[in-house]
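ZP: hey, is the zinc ion complex queued? I don't see it on the tracker
AM: it wasn't, my bad. submitting now with these inputs:
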Amino acid sequence: MKLPRTLKRIATAAAATLFLSVLAPAGASADDLSVADLNLRTPFECGQVWNANTRTNHNPLLSVDFQRSDAQGQSVLSSASGTVTTVADLGDESYGRYIIVDHGDGVTTLYAHLQTQSVAVGDSVSTGAAIGTVGSTGGSTGPHLHYEQRVGGTVVEVVLNGVEIYYYGNTTITSSTGC
Ligand SMILES: [Zn+2]
């Protein structure tokens, strides 16, 4: 059967919608996903103790700054397995040198103010893989790791090792990653 051009477009769109609904069943949208389900790990070596700081004037609001006295140069580890999607340098602005790792299902983690970046876009990383080192690049006044967890591009409350970080204030965290 030869369809008029407009009808052909509608038929194609309907087929595409059907295809997408099979790929993304109802109930699996990014809004429904929780980082608590993903077992994201503290981005530091086993046994290291860090202060996790959250505050109401942080941008983005739900980011975490990890601090300790000898932060500079410490290894930064991927919170979970995934694919590196961003390795960028904003110079003296904002995140400075930063990395984004995509963990699938719309979940990403972001690591900023890095001194060094040791992965490239497209690299596959495992949980606890070293991706760079802590620094003070970008809009930072001292060495620390600025860290974000995002679902569908939206920054969410950080959950590490199944425990939500305290908002707003300071939490002492001992990393168990790779232990
Ligand atoms: Zn920060």
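AM: back. Residues 58, 63, 65, 146 surround zinc ion (CB under 6 Å).
ZP: great, adding it to the tracker
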